[in-house]
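Sequence, structure tokens reproduced for absentees:
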Amino acid sequence: MPVIAPMPASRTSRVTSQRQGADDTMATGTTVDHLTETYRAHYRSLLGLAALLLDDTASCEDVVQEAFIRVHSARNRVRDPEKTLAYLRQTVVNLSRSALRRRILGLKLLSKPMPDMASAEEGAYDQLERDALIKAMRGLQRRQREVLVLRYFADMTEAQVAETLGVSLGSVKAYGSRGIAALRVAMEATK
């Protein structure tokens, strides 16, 4: 169990409470001793409360511990020591809700699962087809290969290919048409 160190009461609050004839604990809020006793007496019941709201033990323990820390930090606001347990219960409920909200948000933000991967056979066939395509591309004339690579792999328009290669638009169309026909013949021969 953690040890909660007492916080020194301010001198002005003691003087004020003595003038008003009020009890010292009422002016300064819940005492550290009372909070420590509450911790010892009600830790398990608060843990049970958190367990009803959350699904794993570690989160329950974290929530209850955080609740005691928050109540300890704000103990001066709990004027009636009898209400400390109620304040703790409400803090456990609120922290449990927050934990659940974070989980739900985390699940929503998770990326969608990857589509089913191709089998090893499909990957091997794809690799063979790529190898055959590369071999067929090497068999083309230089200009045909350049036009096809710029047009279909670099995703350029025919006008952009013509400008890049410094040839006319008609030449790009002719090289492209002849290159595709030659690729078709070469790819059919590999089957």
